[in-house]
């Protein structure tokens, strides 16, 4: 790969990260506001119901692809029409089989659990979303291959806005849990129409054994990790929901939602880094620098955000009338925040393993996490309820330190050195924020003061300790703006 091509990848990657970050913050802002309003209008049990059904349908998504989309993205040569149609045809067959399973299993489950119309309509809406998502796969792959995340960002923002606007309106009109079903239908339909209008492809059904074999060679090992992730995350969540009940699971959903907001920045980098790392996999030095910078800037944004959310969550709950029902979620929020901080560093590493073809390494790690999850999640949930579930999440997260060791061996990336400044400055910021509680000020004053002081302390410390890295990122943005204006 020549220098010109490397520079092009770097430029497009940086541009995509910028736009995806703006998109993700926009989406998280909309979804956080929407989720907040819904948690005011709905009870914990209704929030838990939607989360449980969403987890159930989410499991089907893992069986509808077999890693073929990832194989198309990772593929070095140009994608042919037969590759696209083979992927699409196989995917639709799998989707159809998954829906048959739902049709056979749900009536029996509904009878055993006493499910009514609410559960049925939420399930139907999520099945529709499942089918719509499968039709969006190829257009999305084509955009991702070209690192053209601007259109994907726009579509995601539109979908997310429609979902929460519709859900909030119908929740306000006293539709209760049905609000989720109506909003899911609206989001899926609009998103499907838009993506085909901006990224059409010669849709068709055919299967080429040669193309399928080539795609499965990468896709099957990749999807094996995904299947393991199903057992680790979604299946374990359903078991936990069965142990602690809908209302407690709704409390956990609130705590998890709060910690997902900062991870939107990580998601932006992950979306771009997989195809970018794949293109740079033979350029060892550039790959090392790319991984290090990805981890550093994720930590720079995610660490203080998680610390700040944990510090102000009790004040926010106490500020809002009739919001005290979510106060029990604060303690699990602390454990989820610590776990999310570890995941924010670990995810880019496993992403890099996949991008350079080290799928077996990721598979072994997924097996390790799955075993730990199935040991600690049910055990601690039975003993300590939803708080035990959050503790288990942190215990499993701590095992990721081994992944950091592997990153040093494989890519020569020193994780501790990379995240040292964001970690220390975030801890100092957190201690400063918590000291404000000693002033015994009114809740609103405390809330505002914590945000202002926290931002000032963190920005000042990082300006002093890591201005070179920050200036590098600013220079990259300036270069992008100059190139776009030419």
Characterise the protein shown here:
The protein contains 17 helices and no strands. It has 486 residues and is mainly α. The longest helix has 40 residues. The protein is globular and about 70 Å long.
Specify the helix fraction band.
over 70%
Output the number of helix runs: 17
User: Which spans have pLDDT < 50 for at least 5 consecutive residues?
Assistant: none
Q: Please identify the oligomeric state.
A: single chain
Radius of gyration: 23 Å
Count of the domains: 1
* Mean of all residue-level pLDDT scores: 81
What order do the SSEs take from the amino end to the carboxyl end, as H and E? HHHHHHHHHHHHHHHHH
Query: What's the number of extended β-strand segments?
Result: 0
What portion of the residues fall into strands of 2 or more residues?
under 5%
Instruction: Please summarize the sheet with the most strands.
Output: none
Shape: globular
Class based on secondary structure composition and strand pairing = mainly alpha
Measured distance between first and last alpha carbons: 26 Å
Structural features:
486 residues; mainly alpha
Task: Give a short synopsis of this structure.
The chain is an all-alpha fold and 486 residues long.
């Amino acid at each position: 790969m020549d220098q010109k091509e490397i520079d092009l990848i770097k430029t497009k990657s940086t541009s995509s990260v910028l736009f995806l970050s703006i998109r993700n913050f926009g989406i998280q802002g909309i979804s956080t506001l929407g989720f907040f309003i819904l948690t005011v209008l709905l009870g914990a049990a209704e929030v838990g119901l939607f989360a449980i059904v969403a987890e159930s349908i989410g499991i089907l998504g893992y069986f509808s692809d077999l890693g073929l989309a990832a194989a198309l993205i990772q593929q070095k040569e140009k994608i042919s029409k037969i590759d696209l149609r083979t992927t699409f045809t196989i995917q639709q067959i799998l989707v159809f089989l998954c829906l048959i399973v739902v049709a056979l299993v749900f009536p029996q489950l509904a009878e055993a659990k006493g499910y009514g119309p609410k559960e049925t309509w939420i399930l139907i809406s999520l099945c529709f979303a499942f089918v719509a998502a499968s039709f969006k796969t190829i257009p999305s792959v084509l955009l991702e291959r070209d690192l053209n995340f601007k259109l994907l960002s726009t579509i995601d923002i539109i979908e997310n806005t429609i979902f929460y606007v519709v859900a909030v309106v119908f929740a306000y009109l006293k539709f209760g849990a049905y609000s989720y079903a109506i909003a899911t239908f609206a989001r899926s339909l609009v998103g499907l129409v838009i993506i085909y209008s901006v990224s059409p492809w010669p849709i068709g059904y055919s299967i080429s054994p040669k193309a399928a074999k080539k795609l499965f060679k990468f896709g099957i090992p990749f999807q094996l990790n995904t299947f393991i992730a199903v057992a680790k995350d979604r299946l374990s969540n359903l078991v936990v929901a069965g142990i602690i009940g809908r209302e407690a699971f709704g409390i956990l959903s609130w705590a998890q939602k709060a910690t997902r907001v900062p991870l939107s920045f990580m998601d932006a980098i992950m979306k771009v880094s997989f195809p970018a790392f794949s293109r740079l996999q033979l350029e060892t030095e550039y790959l090392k620098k790319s991984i290090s910078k990805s981890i550093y800037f994720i930590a720079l944004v995610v660490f203080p955000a998680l610390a700040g959310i944990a510090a102000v969550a009790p004040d926010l709950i106490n500020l809002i009338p009739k919001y005290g029902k979510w106060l029990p979620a604060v303690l699990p929020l602390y454990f989820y925040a610590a776990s999310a901080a570890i995941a924010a560093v670990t995810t880019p590493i496993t992403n890099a393993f996949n991008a350079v073809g080290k799928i077996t390494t990721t598979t072994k790690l997924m097996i390790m996490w799955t075993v730990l999850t199935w040991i600690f999640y049910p055990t601690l949930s039975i003993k300590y309820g939803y708080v035990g579930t959050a503790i288990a999440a942190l215990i499993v997260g701590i095992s990721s330190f081994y992944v950091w060791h592997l990153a040093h061996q494989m890519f020569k990336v020193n994780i501790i050195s990379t995240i040292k400044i964001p970690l220390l400055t975030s801890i100092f910021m957190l201690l400063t924020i918590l000291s404000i509680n000693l002033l015994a000020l009114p809740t609103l004053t405390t809330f505002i003061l914590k945000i202002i002081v926290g931002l000032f302390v963190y920005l000042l410390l990082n300006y002093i300790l890591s201005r070179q890295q920050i200036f590098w990122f600013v220079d990259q943005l300036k270069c992008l703006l100059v190139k776009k204006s030419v």
